[in-house]
């Protein structure tokens, strides 16, 4: 393959090419590249400059073809690269609440929502140590025994190994004031 077969949505991807002469040296003088991107209007960004193509697909981008050929010293080359590129969508994962206020000694449940075009393989929650939730389990129940304020984090991994952004929630563990 000349180019990656899969790129991430909402991420800038760069494709570059070089022309080698018969001695395997990179030819630079008198080389003009011509890029074609199928369904270019479905991409958020397409930038073509000499030997470089930049694309930024959105989440709805379907697989597309890119092709490039070169003219060297005014002569058309016979080598044309055509590749189909598919777009993967990173999973999404977040807590169902932005913050948790927990009475010392009480049990609380951290719940997350996760989605993906493929399938979620694993969900992780960090409230101190990282806890791996098996399969598609989305809830973690904990009891806290110390007053504290911290940031809990969660993220997901899909069956293709793509990792979601980390989502965080503020956690405050407090104790009741003494009563008289």
Question: Which helices and strands, and how do they pair?
Answer:
Elements: E1 6-8, E2 13-16, E3 19-20, E4 26-27, E5 31-37, E6 43-49, E7 52-57, E8 64-72, E9 75-88, E10 92-95, E11 99-103, E12 107-115, E13 120-126, E14 130-133, E15 139-143, E16 148-158, E17 167-174
Parallel strand pairs: 1-9, 11-17
Antiparallel strand pairs: 2-7, 3-4, 5-8, 6-7, 8-9, 10-12, 12-15, 13-14, 13-16, 16-17
Mean pLDDT, all residues: 84
Head-to-tail CA distance between termini: 76 Å
Q: Name the structural class.
A: mainly beta
As residue ranges, the low-confidence spans are none
Principal-axes shape call: rod-shaped
The proportion of residues forming helix, as a percent range, comes to: under 10%
How would a textbook summarize the main sheet?
Answer: 5 strands, mixed
Query: How big a fraction of the residues is strand?
Result: over 45%
Strands across the major sheet, in which order?
Answer: 11-17-16-13-14
- The number of helical runs is 0
Rg (C-alpha, Å): 25 Å
How many strand segments?
17
N to C succession of SSEs: EEEEEEEEEEEEEEEEE
């Amino acid at each position: 393959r000349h180019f990656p077969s899969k790129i991430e949505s909402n991420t800038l991807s760069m494709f570059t090419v070089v022309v080698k002469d018969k001695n395997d040296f990179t030819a630079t003088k008198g080389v003009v590249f011509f890029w074609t991107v199928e369904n270019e209007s479905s991409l958020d960004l397409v930038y073509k400059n000499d030997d470089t193509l930049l694309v930024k697909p959105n989440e709805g981008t379907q697989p597309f073809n890119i092709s490039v050929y070169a003219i060297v010293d005014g002569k058309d080359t016979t080598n044309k690269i055509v590749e189909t590129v598919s777009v993967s969508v990173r999973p999404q994962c977040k807590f169902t609440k932005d913050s948790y206020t927990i009475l010392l000694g009480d049990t609380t449940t951290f719940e997350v929502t996760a989605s993906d075009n493929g399938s979620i393989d694993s969900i992780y929650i960090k409230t101190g140590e990282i806890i791996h939730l098996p399969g598609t389990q989305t809830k973690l129940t904990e009891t806290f025994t110390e007053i504290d304020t911290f940031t809990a984090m969660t993220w997901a991994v899909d069956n293709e190994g793509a990792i979601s952004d980390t989502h965080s929630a503020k956690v405050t563990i407090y104790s009741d004031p003494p009563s008289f």
